[in-house]
Write a structure and sequence with these properties.
alpha+beta
């Protein structure tokens, strides 16, 4: 099983109508640099890895970072 995600972010170039570093929450949405990337997947992958360790599963596997 491969668990993979990226955490690079949207460039803070020109054209922003709001502060790209502000992290503004408005009407249930987050606006800012990086708000549209796969952070939810990365959180789920880390939770899965923690569960494997916490349950002491002894399958042949490697956690690589």
């Amino acid at each position: 099983v491969l668990v993979y995600g990226h955490y690079d972010v949207v460039p803070a170039g020109e054209g922003w109508t709001l502060d790209p570093f502000g992290g503004l929450v408005r009407d249930g949405r987050i606006y800012g640099r990086g708000a549209c990337d796969t952070k939810g997947f990365i959180a789920a992958a880390l939770t899965a890895a923690e569960t494997v360790v916490a349950k002491g599963l002894r399958r042949p596997l490697a956690l690589v970072r």
